[in-house]
Design brief:
The structure is a homodimer. Chain A is an alpha/beta fold. Chain A has helices at 3-10, 23-29, 49-62, 83-88, 121-130, 133-141, 181-189, 202-208, 219-225, 252-256, 260-294, 305-323, 327-349, 351-358; strands at residues 33-39, 67-72, 94-97, 146-153, 160-162, 176-178, 193-194, 213-214, 233-236, 245-251, 299-302. In chain A, β1, α3 and β2 form a beta-alpha-beta unit. The first copy, chain A, is globular and about 65 Å long.
Chain lengths: 360, 360
């Protein structure tokens, strides 16, 4: 039934009499939207898949059931790496994924998930909501008919699991590691070999020696995968992903067909889900790290400063090359790198100084 | 008009025929709620007052106008320090303030705004949403008929503006400083004198010498107050308030009278506003600090490690004393201090390690 027919049949117009609500608002209340949300994660995957479930539930609850969203795990409706296309083509009204998966569409997407030595979760959100980042992200996805927004952040990730110690920069040479995105490009230039494979194959590949190392997320997800059984060393910090943003993709036409109150509900639910995920990861990583160290006796080690310093030099080169791909990439790079310069200065007197003081 | 009468008069029941929506939901769509929100801030005060405005607007927008909220600055309806009572008594349905203002009601409220050497914004939210903090907060406010939740965070504050250099712990002796809450108690035990006065009087008090020092918030708010004109030294980090939570207070009866979708809208709007404020402060502090250093030539200095170490020892004593006031205070203290111990360990390998690596 079309919305107009429905409104005529139930005669909503008369309801508006005697109230100060516009009839269009009341009409909205009786119109239902059934949406699909495709995700790049296994269904119910802790932190990522569960955030997609939460987002869908928040939208349904806040809309009083006017939007119902069915969440699909990777491969249930489309494969993980087709989430972007599915939302662009209207196969699904929403998607839940990470922007760096779409670098094949346009390389600059990588600025909106994780940049080596880039922004932490708090800084990334500051750039997105108050530093011009969101407007640039929308500009980037506009040609694809997609409205992007942030719906979560993993916080600082771990450098990963290694089957040997990393004492010098030379130890990275010949290292076979699963590390995607810009971080992978940095490792290749450092002399390593990157291997791309789904999360589910990492455990056996580490066990068989097909991989020497892998990064994944952080203690919360890594503990669940059991990597501690097959790799001896757990390195930090996650220089390659200091605050990975998860994205909600919204089909533009589907969004525009919503009444204004439901549009706001969809966008604000994403913002609340964004707060939720970083809180979940901070709390759960914290518990899981404790279990890894005290129960499973994992060796948690810092990457040596000299190694980090060299990785940072290469990272800066890789990011500048990305910036020079096209005009929009340059515009995004200029925005985020100016923001990073200032926020680093602020971080020195705020987060960094306080975290050090608390350790005294 | 009571809701029941209203529903009967407009005959909403018939509207539900032919739709899959429960009639109660449709009834909701035609019921309007006019709420008041009293705040502890001057109307439109940057960051704090503007967050209250934003919160009210989000609720109205997401509800399609079914909840309209009039925001009152401090003194417009009730004075700043009567916000809690006003919400408790139903004079206003909502409040926007900081929990440490209510220590006169019950001392444990201080755990929910800022604790010296306690949790950062990200950690505080992790404790509230995923570490049991929110449940304890609700238990604490339950006897007052108030549902509390987080609606913002200032992030790490600055130690404050000083008219003299602080080189040793002894330099704190005799210092006349505006510093409220637990931090103030710490300073008193360190030999200082604390003075309580509204924000608007700080500038002239510093100028006249009635105050030697004041903390306020951070560069964003402090720049606007012009403190750089009357105090030479700007110290960091804000050991006394590492991540101050702003609270939304909701009158329990008013909340319970809302249909379920509007209840969700109110709570999720607070969560989205919480994400918004820390993003705003991170972005704006960052810009303001740049102006203070480069335009106004402010001397931004770290408190010496020895001073911080001693302040931390005293802080721990003060917080333990607070914990021993009553059983609920003890329960809250046990929860937050266990959380802090673990999250500090996680912070060492994540935020702290990354922020240091980025400076190499």
């Amino acid at each position: 039934m079309k919305r107009r027919d429905f409104i005529q049949k139930v005669g909503v117009g008369s309801l508006a009499v005697g109230t100060s609500l516009a009839s269009s608002n009341v009409a909205n209340a009786a119109t239902q939207f059934k949406w699909k949300m495709v995700t790049a994660w296994p269904k119910n995957f802790p932190g990522l898949g569960t955030n997609a479930n939460l987002l869908a539930k928040m939208i349904t609850d806040m809309s009083g059931g006017r939007i119902k969203i069915k969440v699909y795990g990777a491969k249930e409706l489309v494969p993980a790496f087709e989430v972007f296309d599915a939302v662009s083509n209207g196969i699904a009204e929403m998607g839940h994924s990470g922007a760096y998966y779409w670098k094949g569409k346009t390389e600059a997407t990588q600025f909106f998930s994780a940049v080596p030595f880039g922004l932490t979760a708090q800084e990334m959100n500051a750039w997105l909501y108050y530093g011009g980042g969101m407007e640039l992200w929308r500009e980037l996805y506009k040609p694809f008919g997609i409205i992007p927004t942030a719906t979560g952040n993993s916080g600082v990730q771990m450098a990963g699991w290694f089957n040997r110690e990393i004492n010098t920069f030379e130890d990275l040479k010949g290292l076979k590691m699963r590390i995607p995105g810009l971080g992978g490009e940095v490792l290749r230039r450092a002399g390593g070999t990157t291997v791309n494979m789904p999360g589910g194959e990492l455990f056996t590949s580490l066990q068989s020696g097909a991989l020497d190392a892998t990064e994944w997320v952080g203690p919360y997800n890594d503990l669940a995968f059991g990597f501690y059984k097959v790799a001896k060393y757990y390195y930090y910090p996650g220089w390659h992903e200091p605050g990975s943003t998860m994205e909600a993709l919204i089909n533009e036409k589907a969004f525009n067909s919503l009444p204004k109150d439901l549009q706001q509900i969809v966008l604000m639910a994403c913002k609340a889900a964004n707060m939720d995920m970083i809180s979940e990861y901070t709390a759960r990583n914290n518990q899981a790290l404790d279990a890894l160290i005290n129960k499973h006796k994992v060796k948690v080690l810092p990457l040596p400063n000299d190694v980090l310093r060299k990785l940072k030099q290469i990272s800066d080169e890789v990011v500048v090359e990305l910036a020079n791909k096209d005009a929009l990439s340059k515009k995004i790079y200029d925005s985020v790198s100016q923001f990073r310069a200032q926020v680093t200065q602020w971080g020195v007197v705020s987060e960094l100084a306080f975290l050090k003081a608390r350790m005294l």
